[in-house]
Design brief:
heterodimer, A: 528 residues, mainly alpha, two-stranded antiparallel sheet, 22 helices, disordered C terminus, B: 469 residues, two-stranded antiparallel ribbon, 2 strands
Chain lengths: 528, 469
């Protein structure tokens, strides 16, 4: 088997270094070519992936630091594959959108983007905790430079805040990983659960919080989200796209890959707090988004709101909720990336993101108005667009587990419609704003380059809206495993309570919670 | 005796070379030639260890062997020679413009290295003290090498006075140990040592000398002043060579004569390490002079490497050695880059990325490595010591350490911000020294390679550190 995953990681990394040394005129072409190679490789992964096969595929395993039992261990399941494909799709779009808009040290910019891509793919495919951590942290360097060098006015503050927030969270995770290693003597992600699940509940909970610190900052969950609006507003368009499209998925990916399988019991016992945070985040971030006047900030807060929905679904643990959470992740990656690209397009023309300067864009730019409309409708989860399926599944799946948080999150979806439609009205309809008025005659509509950028996203919005199974089949296997794990944990946890005098009261919610099918499968597995 | 000489051949070669260097320097007064000869001397003394690394006791007296070569001490000696060799190219670009490029610099550096080697391999308090002083005295003189510069003289004097005080305290501790056990050899003390309050005092005082050299809290106060006042190449040496030797000596001392008291010194050292990390990381942020900043950073870094020593395990010893080796490389590279960039204060770094893009990349690598960001060598250095501390049950220390490393990341980021995000205040004219330029790029590349393939050093340090504790 060819090492496709290694190629997907290191072609962009070394290509990035090569881009840095290329003259400015050719750098962007080289970067585009390399990102298309990555896209083709991701396509090869998709074509050769067997969704029904359990475990990890395309694995590579070599000793890296034998003294500490650290291995270069790669492999993907459906969850990682979907996110890798998303990364590979968004990178060429980022390069295209920066074609003219980035003028300062363009080779450096392209290099940072490519290296970032390589590191992100590494995070999604690492099966060794330390390898994961290396990619996880390495990612910070290019992102820090992207925001700090090519960002807006307040870029220094945003870059430092971004770096330090995520760094503090990550180092706590590192200590937790070392603690696990002291007991398990391995960093292998597939082996660690055997040890961690045997640890006392209190230890599990401490470790859970340590991992939580790293992932919650990245998601970002309320109240660790304050770096996101700053980073988004100050980042260049491509940075925002990568940030919203890919980097925000790392936190929730971490929950799925580490928190749930490693500490199922801790996750179960602590999930009420997470439900509360998630439900609150959905509503709060939606309301804050409504109050924004900067378009990018608005979309940034809408991201916080959407990610709240994802964490709600993930920690609910039912099959439907997990499917929903993953779909929201993927869809948010497509839709918010599209929105940021749209904002980038208009910023390139008018050099403002203040909402009050816009209005009436439909007159000079009807095609642009159409693109933004599709993206807006997808963002408000209109049935027929991809987001609808995800949000519905997440909410429906979480309802039996966390009714209050789900109820709150559902109202959040209503607020979501409110601010997105309001944004659309202010931007596209109405009387032309001062800036639009000034340039009314010479405001060019979407050209060929921008059609290339937006078309794949629009197509995906519709395709995944009509036929979501395309994505769901990919990750059905790991989702089933996770939901079964959650069901067995609930059962295990309920046993002491069952011994109490009134078993019926305790048992009935368990059955409702886990759904009948998963419970029966786990029971038979237990008998094997 | 001949067997002893064969085992100790590297030390003898270096000692003999120093005499030659002194004569050549005195007769020709040609610093450039002496510099080349010093490099040859370092390589020549490393050769026996490289080709036939052989452990064993050397110069056995009635009270135990003076030196005892082990795989650990031999590897540490080789690393010391490597660091000494790598520090040579820094001298001429600094001293030639200052009109102070003299052969004595190299002779003193070689003497200091010889002292470090004796200290590392010592297994007897006589050779231990001798090595420590032989390492320290040339450094006192080197700190004051720019005779006409009052800052340099001040640095030398300060270093000398405080260093002598620390040595005195240590000597007192050694004498108390002798009074309690009747031994000066490490092996003898280890067997005769019994827990009593006076022994604890003796141990504490004995460790003072090394703690001073390592600039650990509470004997760190000299570091910022001496770092700032000393000529830059000397500061670079101070930040790398004695740190390496003192770390190894500390490990050998704690794993040898004081091994029985591990439960006593572990918590004490853990507190010192934690204080050092806290003080160093926070105070480095406030500095505007780059050498002072790096001094505070050193204080923090030593705290990090001590977390490995605290573990009192082979893994910890391995981590500490790996850490201090990587740290030495990083420091040499950083100082070289600062010298090449002509920056002494933080504001002078502004816009370096536009003036000298490649130099800025090198400096960025060093700073990210100091902050412990993967995939650079500094990450694995931190990782190994933290892992050892957690495995030894010092999880709280590891948590303090990672939080401090996040605080310490701030000043690294701040310097990178100055280089990359800010516009230059003035355009730098003239080409920097090409050699220095290549040197700092090469060391930066080494840190990247070591970060991706930590095995290159970690395998050696790990093999050498087995059965230390």
């Amino acid at each position: 088997m060819l090492p496709i995953l290694s190629a997907l990681i290191f072609i962009p990394v070394f290509g990035g270094v090569a881009t840095l040394l290329t003259p400015a005129k050719f750098a962007k072409w080289l970067a585009l070519g390399l990102s298309l190679v990555s896209l083709a490789l991701a396509g090869a992964l998709l074509a050769n992936f067997h969704p029904a096969m359990p475990g990890y595929q395309f694995t590579e395993n070599r000793a890296w630091l034998p003294a500490l039992n650290i291995n270069y261990h790669l492999g993907i399941d459906g969850i990682s594959l979907a996110l890798i494909a998303l990364t590979a799709l968004l990178t060429p779009l980022c390069i295209l959108t920066s074609w003219h808009s980035v003028s300062k040290n363009q080779p450096g910019f392209m290099a940072a983007l490519l290296i970032l891509q390589g590191a992100v793919v590494g995070v999604f495919s690492a099966l060794d905790f330390i390898l994961f951590y290396v990619f996880w942290e390495a990612m910070l360097i290019p992102m820090f430079l992207l925001i700090g060098i090519w960002g807006g006015e307040n870029r220094v503050y945003a870059a430092l805040k971004f770096f330090l927030y995520t760094f503090v969270g990550s180092v706590l995770m590192l200590v937790a990983g070392l603690y696990i290693y002291a007991h398990a003597h391995t960093f292998d992600i597939t082996q660690i659960p055997i040890t961690t699940m045997a640890l006392p509940l209190l230890t599990q909970q401490f470790l859970f919080w340590a991992f939580f610190a790293a992932f919650a900052v990245k998601v970002p969950m309320f109240p660790f989200h304050t770096w996101l609006p700053d980073a988004h507003v100050q980042a260049p368009t491509a940075g925002s796209v990568i940030l919203a499209g890919v980097l925000l998925k790392l936190g929730t990916y971490g929950f799925l890959r580490f928190s749930l399988p490693f500490f199922p019991e801790a996750a179960l016992t602590l999930s009420p707090y997470i439900f509360a945070l998630s439900g609150f985040a959905v509503v709060y971030a939606a309301l804050v988004a409504y109050a924004q006047t900067d378009i990018k900030k608005l979309i940034a807060y809408s991201s916080v709101s959407h990610m709240g929905l994802v964490t709600l679904g993930i920690f609910a643990g039912t099959e439907a909720a997990l499917h929903g959470g993953l779909l929201v992740m993927l869809n948010h990656g497509i839709v918010s990336a599209g929105l940021f690209l749209a904002v980038g397009s208009i910023y390139e023309r008018l050099h403002t993101r203040e909402l009050k300067n816009f209005g009436g864009l439909v007159v000079p730019m009807p095609r642009y108005a159409f693109v933004v409309m599709v993206l807006t409708l997808a963002a408000v989860a209109l049935p027929g667009t991809n987001s609808f399926v995800g949000e519905f599944l997440a909410l429906a799946g979480a309802w039996p587990v966390a009714p209050w948080a789900t109820a709150a999150a559902t109202t959040g979806a209503v607020f979501g419609a409110l601010y997105m439609l309001w944004l659309y009205r202010k931007m596209v309809f109405g009387t032309p704003g001062p800036n639009v008025q000034k340039h009314l005659k010479e405001l060019p509509d979407i050209g060929a380059r921008e059609w290339v950028i937006f078309t794949p996203l629009l197509v995906l919005i519709v395709v995944l809206g009509v036929y979501p199974a395309l994505a769901m089949n990919l990750w059905a296997q790991p989702v089933k495993v996770l939901s079964e794990l959650s069901a067995t944990t609930i059962q295990k946890h309920a046993i002491p309570a069952v011994a109490a005098p009134s078993p019926t009261i305790v048992v009935s919610p368990t059955v409702v919670v886990s759904g009948t099918a998963p419970v029966s499968t786990t029971v038979t597995e237990g008998h094997k | 005796m001949p067997a002893d000489l064969i085992l100790a051949a590297p030390l003898c070669i270096l000692a003999a070379s120093i005499l030659v260097l002194l004569l050549v320097g005195a007769f020709t007064n040609n610093a450039k030639m002496v510099s080349g000869l010093t490099a040859i001397a370092f390589v020549a003394s490393a050769l026996p260890w490289l080709s036939h690394p052989q452990s064993g006791a050397v110069f056995v007296t009635q009270s135990g062997a003076l030196l005892s070569l082990s795989p650990f001490s031999i590897l540490a000696s080789l690393l010391t020679l490597g660091v000494a060799l790598l520090s040579l190219p820094l001298a001429s670009p600094f001293f030639v413009p200052a009109r102070a490029h003299k052969p004595e610099y190299y002779v003193l550096l070689a003497l200091c290295t010889l002292g470090a080697l004796i200290l590392i391999n010592s297994s007897h308090f006589v050779s231990f003290y001798l090595g420590l002083e032989l390492m320290s005295f040339p450094l006192y003189i080197l700190a004051a090498f720019l005779r006409k510069d009052p800052h340099s003289s001040e640095a030398g004097l300060k270093y000398f006075v405080l260093g002598s005080l620390a040595s005195g305290l240590m000597l007192y501790g050694i004498s108390l140990l002798y009074a309690q056990t009747g031994h000066l050899g490490f092996a003898g003390i280890a067997t005769a040592l019994a827990y009593n309050p006076l022994v604890l005092v003796a141990m504490a005082l004995t460790l003072v000398g090394l703690i001073f050299k390592l600039s650990t809290v509470p004997f760190h106060m000299w570091t910022p002043d001496v770092y700032q006042g000393s000529p830059l190449p000397v500061t670079a040496v101070m930040a790398s060579l004695p740190k390496l030797a003192a770390t190894v000596a500390l490990v050998r001392l704690l794993a040898g004569p004081f091994a029985a008291l591990a439960t006593t010194w572990q918590p004490a050292l853990a507190v010192l390490a934690a204080l050092g990390m806290l003080a160093g990381s926070t105070l480095a942020i406030l500095q505007t002079d780059l050498k002072r900043l790096l001094a505070w950073s050193t204080i923090a870094q030593v705290g990090f490497l001590l977390t490995g020593v605290v573990a009192a395990s082979s893994a910890g010893a391995h981590g500490a050695l790996f850490y201090v080796a990587v740290y030495g490389l990083t420091m040499l590279g950083t100082f070289a880059a600062l010298l090449a960039g002509g920056a002494t204060t933080t504001t002078q770094l502004k816009g370096l990325a536009q003036n000298r893009p490649y130099l800025a990349i090198a400096l960025m690598v060093y700073l990210f490595s100091l902050a412990g960001i993967p995939p650079l060598a500094g990450f694995f250095a931190k990782f190994t010591v933290f892992a050892a501390a957690v495995a030894a049950g010092y999880t709280w220390l590891a948590i303090v350490a990672v939080i401090c490393s996040a605080v310490a990341a701030f000043y690294s980021l701040w310097l990178i911000k100055l280089m990359y995000f800010d516009a230059p205040e003035h355009i730098l004219h003239g080409a920097p020294s090409k050699a220095l330029f290549a040197y700092s790029l090469l060391l930066a590349a080494a840190l990247v390679v070591l970060g991706i393939f930590p095995n290159l050093i970690a395998n050696l340090t790990f093999a050498a550190a087995t059965a230390i504790f």
